[in-house]
From TrEMBL:
InterPro entries cross-referenced by the UniProt entry: MFS, MFS_dom, MFS_trans_sf, MFS_Transporters
Protein name: Major facilitator superfamily protein
PANTHER family in UniProt: INTEGRAL MEMBRANE TRANSPORT PROTEIN, RESISTANCE PROTEIN MDTM, PUTATIVE-RELATED-RELATED
Keywords: Cell membrane, Membrane, Transmembrane, Transmembrane helix, Transport
One GO cellular component, as annotated: plasma membrane
Species the sequence originates in: Halolamina pelagica
Location in the cell: Cell membrane
Main location: membrane
Xref: PROSITE patterns: MFS
Amino acid sequence: MAGQHRQGIREHLGQFSLHVLLVFATGLTIGSERTVVPVLGEEVLGVESFLVIGSFVVSFGFVKALLNLYAGKWGEEYGRKPVLVLGWLTALPIPIILIYAPSWSWITVGNVLLGSTRR
């Protein structure tokens, strides 16, 4: 059986479980941001413009789309794991940025970082 790859969830349960956890955590972050961040912008940071509040969604989407164009190429060139790990490391400061954000620009920076993570 040398050279043959074993397939299926059971054979890769650890990897599969990690992926499920990461997708869940990313979805939870994005979902809570869509609910909490607009209220934070209006009530805490005093942002009144709907367009400014929407900027965090646009920044996320733009960065996500742009980096998705390159992720496959980088995965082939440097390996999938290093690209994924770099994305996860990029996400580490996001909660701190959002918790201590003194202005709306910090929220936008947090979403740019969130857009740069791979899922």
